[in-house]
Amino acid sequence: MKTTASQRGAILIMVLWFIAIATVIVATLASETRLSAQVVLYNKMGLQTWNDSLQALHAAQIELLINRMPDPPGTEELKPLSERKHKRYRFNGQVLELAYPIPNTVKVRIYDHAGKINIHRLTKQRLRQLLEKRIGQNPDKMSALEDTWNDWLDSDDMKRVNGAETDYYETLPTPYEPRNSKIETVEELLLIKGFDEVFNGVNMDSAFTVYGNTFGVNPNFATREALMLLPGLDSASVDIILKKRRKKEFKSHSDLNEFIEPEQLAQSRAWINFSSSNFYTIALQANPEALEKSETENDQDDEADEAEQADQDSPETLPQPENQGAYMVTVQPRGYNQLPKILMVNPYGVLPDTRHEQISSDDEDDEDEWGLNTSF
Question: Cα–Cα distance between 73 and 264 in angstroms, integer?
Answer without folding.
Answer: 43
